[in-house]
Amino acid sequence: MNRSTTLGADDYVHTVRRHNSDPLALAAAIAASGQLTDYVVYEQPGHWYVAGNPIGAVTVGPGRLHTTLGGDHTESWTGTPWPRIRAALDRAPVPRWRAYGWACFELYRPDTASPDDVLAHFMVPGVELEITETTVHSRCYGAPFTLDLPDITATAPAPAPVPVGEVDTAYLRRVRHALDRIHHGEFHKVIMSRQVDVPFAVDMPASYVAVRRNNTPARSFLLDLGGWQAAGVSPETVLEADGAGLAATQPLAGTRARTGDAGHDRALRDALLTDPKEVYEHATSVRLAYDELDSLGSATRVSEFLTVKERGSVQHLASRVETLLPPEQSGWDALAAVFPAITASGIPKAPACAAIGDLEPGTRGLYSGTVVRADSTGVLDAALVLRAVYQRGGRSWLRAGAGVVTGSTPEREHEETCEKLACIAPYLVPARSHSAVRPR
Q1: Residue 11 pLDDT grade (very low, low, confident, very high; cuts 50, 70, 90)
Q2: Does the structure show a pLDDT above 50 at 3?
Q3: Rounded to two decimals, what is the model's pTM?
Q4: What is the average pLDDT across 218-231?
Q5: 3-state percent breakdown (helix, strand, coil) of the chain, nearest 5
Q6: What is the C-alpha separation between 317 and 283, in angstroms, rounded?
Q7: To 5 degrees, how large is the angle CA 275–CA 303–CA 220?
Q8: Which of 111, 152, 218, 359 has the smallest number of CB atoms closer than 10 Å to its CB?
Q9: Which DSSP state fits 378?
Q10: Are 346 and 182 in contact (CB under 8 A)?
Q11: Please, are residues 131 and 47 in contact by the beta-carbon 8 Å criterion?
Q12: Straight-line distance from the first to the last Cα atom of the chain, in angstroms, rounded to the nearest whole number
């Protein structure tokens, strides 16, 4: 049964349609069907949001912000662009807007990017679908959108596992250099990452389904927006804001593998909880997350501390930090305070990010950035971009990192990157053309 109503107050047409499909497969099939352009799929517990066909966008480059919402407008920025992004979205031609988008790691340090780089891209969709276990809620701007529910009964394509275990000697050197800088007191922790090239073009929607079925993420995402394609299973949220003043972040730091053997995994979990290096790494991350949110809010607290979250092929030490924002602050201000995530940058953040720029080749792009879903009421949900496959400019790749602190060894950090890459690498589905892509 379909129901349709038009709410003239915000110029959106709302419909509700029942379905009996798997929501994950349905969301990916809609994304792959070509019915939407410039799309983002974003999973929150029990809900898959599929948004596309933008009515306008906000793009951010080094020192400049451009929007096509409410007219064509360009302005300069310094410091942090996050509140300006919110202000640009408020110029959308509808009052009750919703927005989806991404931000690169380099948005924190735009001086490391090329002048013409786009570091963040947000769009207000003309079509937004909310898929639950039984229904598809459609929200379309201006006119009804005739959604053709794709057939998802076909056999899933077979993945082509990508090997990730080859020793990366350049990565080992980077970790050694990072340890030297830690010993000289430059910073306490830094995340060193490495890239693994994928030797074929990736079918992103099919890979998203395969990866998601084999992982237990905090959030998941699939996007084709602003020149980036990515599919991932985020282990943690950078920020969650409920629009009523509560803001939270979920740092995960400290890692052990998951092997599938229950007894062995329990032993690894116990070792993780008692390892001084891992507990130190986690506790320092939680302390900085607390300080960052407390700089804006009040009644800041650690609502969950040193639990263990299972995330596909790995298990992490996890905590949750919450604060109450004052009326003059929004989730965008809180996102500015915590971005980039501590668990993908380092402590203190500024010198750690500078070291990442010094030691890692090239730029990170979407890796360790964020995918965001937000709306005009102040609700904001930002997932950390890790455990993902990336595709851009004819190239496909994976990337993973590990936290380097006093007590780290290059060999163990390399092993940890292999454990994290195993969340994604076995499940990549080649595009039908099987075309080779150039290493990045």
Answers
A1: confident
A2: no
A3: 0.94
A4: 98
A5: 25, 35, 35
A6: 10
A7: 80
A8: 111
A9: S
A10: no
A11: yes
A12: 48
Averaged over 418-426, what is the pLDDT?
A: 97
**Which residue among 43, 106, 128, 236 is the active-site one?**
236
Closest CA to 129 of 214, 33, 263: 33
Beta bridge partners of 168: none
Catalytic residue status for 236: yes
Is the Cβ–Cβ distance between 18 and 132 less than 8 Å?
no
Q: How far is Cα 374 from Cα 382, in angstroms, rounded to an integer?
A: 8
Q: Alpha carbon of 81 to those of 48, 115, 120: distances in Å?
A: 28, 16, 10
Give the model's confidence band at 9: pLDDT under 50 very low, under 70 low, under 90 confident, else very high: very low
Both tokens assigned to 186? 């430059």
pLDDT above 80: residue 109? yes
Nearest to 100 by CA among 130, 79, 142, 144: 130
The DSSP symbol for 414 reads H
Whole-number Å distance between alpha carbons of 430 and 437: 11
Compute φ and ψ for 314, nearest 5 degrees.
-135, 165
Per-residue pLDDT band for 10 (boundaries 50, 70, 90) equals low
Rounded to whole angstroms, how far apart are CA atoms 127 and 20?
A: 21
